[in-house]
Amino acid sequence: MIVWLNGTHGVGKTTTSALVRELIPGSRVLDAEKVGETLMDIAPSLPWTGNFQDWPPWRPLVVETARHVLDYTGGTLVMPMTVLVEPHWREISAGLAHHGIPVRHFVLHADQDTLRGRIDGDLVMGPSDFRLRYLEPYAEAARTWLHTAAEVVDTTRLTPAEAARRIAESVAVTP
InterPro entries this protein is in (predicted)? Predict the structure, then answer.
């Protein structure tokens, strides 16, 4: 199974995914951003689109990487990755379904003021214009498709540990 943690940059996906991993036996974290970083290494030969997720190889490579890791290790993959473009999500989820891989899709959500505060106050990454640029695209995705395509965990007033516990408990009751 895959537990996909979606949501905008700065909402706490990376932190929460590590905590979810601790709560779900036999799980491990697979960060799909690493697939994008691999493509970025060959970027001079790829037409720049502004986001590696727009490169056609990224989405099937994410699917195949997850499939091969699960075939090798079994268990559960916790995948923290922002995907705000609906056709991209549909391609990934259809690819995983094609291989018979169940996906629990969660969106970590917080209100705009909370997100801005978290991004501006991030002690590890520091304030980030990149992350701030995704607040409106996230809000648009949330309004139009994302919140209906996933289980929403509102983290506005939750710690990452509380959010992780809610996700792990929800996954544990899956039939």
Answer: P-loop_NTPase
Residues 16, 107: Cα–Cα separation, whole Å: 11
Q: Tokens at residue 62, please?
A: 């994410």
Indicate the pTM of the whole model: 0.94
Q: In whole angstroms, what is the distance from residue 141 CA to residue 8 CA? A: 10
Q: Which amino acid is at 95?
A: G
Domain residues for 39?
2-172
Kindly report, residue by residue over 122-134, the tens digit of the pLDDT: 888 878 888 999 9
Q: Where residue 85 sits, what CATH number does that domain have? A: 3.40.50.300
Return the SS3 of 148: helix
The CA dihedral of 41, 42, 47, 48, to the nearest 10 degrees, is 0
Separation between Cα atoms, residue 7 and residue 155, nearest integer Å = 11
Amino acid identity of residue 89, one-letter, is W
